[in-house]
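ARCHIVE CARD
SHELF: 3
SLOT: left
DATA:
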Amino acid sequence: MIEEARIKKNLKDFAFPRLSGTKFEFEAFSKLKQQIENLNLNFEVQNFTFSSFYSRWYPKIAFLSISFILLLLYLNMTMMFSMIITLILLGILIISIIITRKPEKIHFISKFNSQNLLVKIDPESSQMKHNDRIVMFMSHLDSKGQRFKVEIRIKIIKLWINTSIILLVIIGLKNLIFIGFQMIFYIIGLFPLILNIIPSIMMLLNNTDNSSDGAIDNASGIACNLELVNYYSSHENRLRNYSMWFLFTGAEECGTMGIRHFYNNLENFDASKSIIFNFESIAKHIFLFPGGSEGDHAVDVNRLLLNNNRNLTIKTHITKRIFGTHSDGGFLGDRGFQGYGIGGVETHAYMHTVNDRIDKIDTNVLEKLCLVLTDSLKEHDSKFFKI
C-alpha cells in the first residue's frame, strides 16, 4: 500500500544538507541502501568520480570572459595589449567549451566521489522476465545551497544574455556603419555595458555550500521514489508488461554527473518502448515537464495521469526548459528518452536556500501522486497491451 506516514518519515530522514561528493551525500546514500536491503531487493551501486569544474567554475569563466571581451570591443582599443588579452580570453573560453562537452570526463580542479543506486524489479508475468519495456523512476540524492536563489539566478542569466546581444548590436553599429558617430554609441552602450558586467560579478559571487536541507530539492523526490519501491516490491503490485527500475543518482547538483555516468554505462534499455519519470522538487502542487516527442505508450500514461480519480490536480504542462538549468530528466530527454519530469514551479523561491525545509511540502500531495502513478500504470499495463 501507498502510505503517507512512510512518505513523511522518509522526507524527514533525507531532509538534511548533503552536498554532492561529501560525507553528507554518502550518509544519504547509506540510509537509502539500508532501506533497499531491508526490502530484500537486488540493487546495483555505480561508483564514479567527478570534478566540480563544469558546475561551479565553467559558468563563472564563461560569463566573465565574454563580458570582458565585450568591454574591450566597446572601448575599441587598438593596443597590442588589448588584442592579446582578447585572444587569451577567447582561447580560454573555446577550450572550456570543448572540454565541457563531456563534463563527466573532466578530472581536474576539485575531484570528488559519488555513487548511483539502481533497483530492478522484474514484471509479474514469467513470460515477460526479459522484456525490453521498462518504467523507470528517478530522483537525485544530493542537495546544495547557493548565495542566490534559483529565481534570482534565472533573472541574472536572462539579463546577461539580453545585454550581451544589445552590446553586440551597438558595437557593430558603432564600428561598421556609423563610423563618424562613435561618441553617440559610446553613450548609448554604457547602460547595457554596466548591466552586463553586474550579472557576471554576481555569478562570480554565487558560491555553492552545504547550507540547504534540500527538502523540496530533492528529499520529496527521494520519498516518492522510495514509496514506489516499497509498493512494487510486493509481487501482487507488479506490472505484467514492464520491468520496474528505480534510480537514485548522486551529484545531480554538480552538473548531472550521476545520470551521465548511468547513461554512459547503460545497456539493454530500449528508449522507444520505455517510460521515465523524474521526481524533481515537489512541494504542494504537481506539474509535468514532458521530455520531448513522446510515443503512444507515454502519451497514454500521460492521459491517465491527467484524468486521475484521486482528486489530484496536475497543473499545466511546462514545455520549455529554462535556460541554464540542469536536471537528470532533461539530460535523458535531450537524448531521446521518453517520459516526464514531475515537480513544481513555485519551488524556485526556496530551492538551494536555507528555506528549503519540510514545512514547505504537503505530504498528502506526495501520497496522491504515488497513488495516481500506480493507478495509471496499472490501467495502462492492462489496457494498452490487451490482445
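SLOT: right
DATA:
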Amino acid sequence: MRVGVFTPLLAQLSLEAVLEKLQSLGIQTVELGTGNYPGDAHCKLSMLDNKSELDTFQKTLDKYGFSISALSCHGNALHPDKAVAAKAHETSRKTILLAEKLGVSTIVDFSGCPGDSPTAKAPNWVTCPWPPEYLDVLKWQWDEIATPYWTEHAKFAADHGVKIAIEMHPGFLAYSPETLLRLRSIAGPSLGCNYDPSHMFWQSIDPIAAVRVLGDAIFHVHAKDTQIYTTNLPKTGVLDTKPYTDEPNRGWIFRTCGYGHDAGWWKEFVSTLRMFGYDGALSIEHEDSLMSPEEGLAKAAHFLNGIVIKEKPAAAWWV
C-alpha cells in the first residue's frame, strides 16, 4: 500500500513542480484528472493523438520516479442535457483509451444521475420511496438510462484492459455500497468503486464495516476525512445543502486526514483494506475548507505515511 495524491489541489502548478513538491513529502504516486469535474491541469487527453506530448509526459513522470494510481474524469454521462452527457461520456471514453496507452489499470468516474423523464433538463436524485411516483422515477432511471449506458461503457473499458472505479457520492445513482454493488451486478466485474470514506461518514455508514461489504469491488481509495458536528446535526440532518464554507452551521464538513478521526481509526481502516485484498494507493484528496491545500496536503502526507502498510507479509512460521 502507498500514499498518493489526487493532483487537482495543486492545479496552479506545472506537472513538474507538482512532482517535485510531492517527492519532498515522500510521495511517488499520483492520481491525475483528465477533465470533467477534476479538470485536466496535469494530464491532457490531447496526448492520445500527439506522440511527442505523450512521450514528454511519460519522461517527466520517469524523471521523478512517479507512478499513476488512476486517471480520473468524474462526470455525469447520464445527465438529461444531451450536450453535458455527451461531453462527460467522451471524456470518460478517451480517458480509458489514454489509460490503456499509459498502462494505467484504473479510471475513476461517477455513476451519473439522469433526470426524471425524457424531457427533463436537470438531474433528479431520488432519496425516498414515497410518494410512489418517486419509485417510478427511480425505476426508469435505472432500467432505461443507467443499465444500457453502463453495460456498454463497462464493456468498452474491459475490452481495453481498464477498470472503472465509481466514486460513491450522494447526488448520483451509485452513492452507497448497496447501490454500487447493484450497478456492478449490471455492468460486470470491470466496474467497481473508488472508495472515499469521507462520503460514507456523512451518510452514517461505517466506512470500515463497508469495506467488508464491498470486498474485491474496491479498485482505488481516496484518503479524505469528515468531521461530524453533533451540535448541528439534530437541526440539519446529514443531507445538509448549506455551502461547505458555512462551517459553523453545517452538520458536517470534509477534513484533512486525521482531523475528523484519529490515527487509531485510520490504522484499522488500512488494515481492513489489506485484509480484504486492497494493496493500492491511498490517494489524498484535499477538500478541507479550514486549511489551505498546501497545509492540508502536508499534514495528510505526514499523517498517512506513518499509517499505511507498505509491505506484504512474508510466509510466517506459525501459519
